[in-house]
Amino acid sequence: EKKELDQYIGKPTVTKDGVTIELVANIGKPEDVDKVLQYDAEGIGLFRTEFLFMDRNSMPTEDEQFEAYQKVAIAMNGKPVIIRTLDIGGDKEIPYMGLKKDENPFLGYRAIRFCLDRREDVYRPQLRALLRASAFGNIKIMVPMVTCLEEFREAKAMIEEVKAELDLKGIAYKRDIQVGIMVETAAASLMADAFAKEVDFFSIGTNDLTQYTMSVDRGNDKVSYLYSPLNPAVLRSIRHIIQCGRKEGIMVGMCGEAASDPLMIPLLLAFGLNEFSMSASAVLNARKLITGYSIAELQAIADKAMSFVTTKEVEAYMRELQ
Ligand code: PEP
Ligand code: MG
């Protein structure tokens, strides 16, 4: 099977009816880039920077972060590299940050909420490192766990402040760097039309979007039967986000697990998803699947799938089509 997939190395990711899809990879550390290149991903759709902060006793300095981001930007040689700002809390703990245990970690003091609060010592150095590294490749900044417009505007304003600082010091950065958001909360999905007017791109985080839509802890086995991106509520949310993004002409990607799910891929293509981001080892199989579909022919299938009102029916229908 590996041999069979190897033939997809170097092939463009274009559907049978001529639509080009961006097929990119998720990473957690600069070293992961080797696999990204090995499996011929077309860029990086999600760099989870919290891994630079984990398994150590103190925060990585601005320079350490700069070196990590720069290394990835250079290795990817002009291909898009979406770097997500620190997404801690929830299931990811960093002991030295002095965070008290939240009663409901996934609903608590995490990600952008924490960063906007602890801006001086945590967020600013990260943004400075990201901007400095942006002079070396095609870096885009992604803000996680956004629930309301104000959070995005505040993050954006801080990026502008950091840019002004760099200007004063004569330090180079990509002036028109794109800033997008993860759409992974129910609130962001419902407000996707408004967000699409202000952000440069969306990346749908189905791991959290499923959790927050279904009110189901993504790590709890007792309720995992409810946790599926094929649930009609989650599918409606995903379709809505893609439609809102496409209407404003911004790129809409997905970096949650659902992006590599063979049962999801035909639906995501039909909805109009532009970019699929997944673990590097899943890329070639996804290219095989995507290049085998015609988006025009998937429309009727997606309509039918969306007419079902239970996960079971959607799943059975999508399985039948495999
Ligand atoms: C997601 O929520 O879908 C996602 C990609 O981010 P993480 O899994 O890191 O929360
Ligand atoms: Mg997430």
Automatic annotation (TrEMBL):
Role according to the record: General (non sugar-specific) component of the phosphoenolpyruvate-dependent sugar phosphotransferase system (sugar PTS). This major carbohydrate active-transport system catalyzes the phosphorylation of incoming sugar substrates concomitantly with their translocation across the cell membrane. Enzyme I transfers the phosphoryl group from phosphoenolpyruvate (PEP) to the phosphoryl carrier protein (HPr).
Family the entry assigns: Belongs to the PEP-utilizing enzyme family.
Designated name of the protein: Phosphoenolpyruvate-protein phosphotransferase
Molecular functions (GO terms): kinase activity; metal ion binding; phosphoenolpyruvate-protein phosphotransferase activity
Binding site for Mg(2+): E184, D208
Keyword Translocase (UniProt): no
Chemical reaction(s) catalysed: L-histidyl-[protein] + phosphoenolpyruvate = N(pros)-phospho-L-histidyl-[protein] + pyruvate
Stretches assigned to the PEP-utilising enzyme C-terminal domain: 4-291
Full protein: residues contained: 246 to 567 of 567
Record organism: Hungatella effluvii
Cofactor: Mg(2+)
